[in-house]
Amino acid sequence: MNEKIKVLFAEDEPALAQIVKESLETRNFTVMPAQDGNEALLKYREYAPHILVLDVMMPKKDGFSLAKEIRQWNKDIPILFLTAKSQPADVVKGFDICCNDYLKKPFSMEELIVRIENLLDRKKLPNRTEIIKIGEYLFNFPKQALVYQDGEEDLLTHL
Fold this sequence. Notes:
Elements: E1 5-10, H1 14-25, E2 29-34, H2 37-47, E3 51-54, H3 63-73, E4 79-83, H4 88-97, E5 101-104, H5 109-122, E6 131-134, E7 137-140, E8 145-147, E9 153-155
Parallel strand pairs: 1-2, 1-3, 3-4, 4-5
Antiparallel strand pairs: 6-7, 7-8, 8-9
């Protein structure tokens, strides 16, 4: 794979975010950090990442809410929750919402990398063109919808 994997990493703890970003970038990932759920949503729309790594407890919009919102546009993007919320009910909620994996803090960087690679292996990169950035808009190919910056969506076909 020549194309770098784009990871959207939403984490409100700056020190942890920097460590994870630097670690992933040494492994040939491109990391777009976000400090809260609203910033993460904007970066998702702007950069069309290949995978999301989301903290659950973030300001402005929590990771569960963010994942639900993104799943409305993209049902296939891998989502990994990386969080201190480690109660069984939290883990179950994460999977019920839509995540593909759930990693509890504290965690090993090697485990995070292996889990990201595993999720990406399930859906190979060449098939990742379901969301295409066109100027200030996103085109959602499977839904045949155009998504505007404000989140408004227009279906382009009536199936």
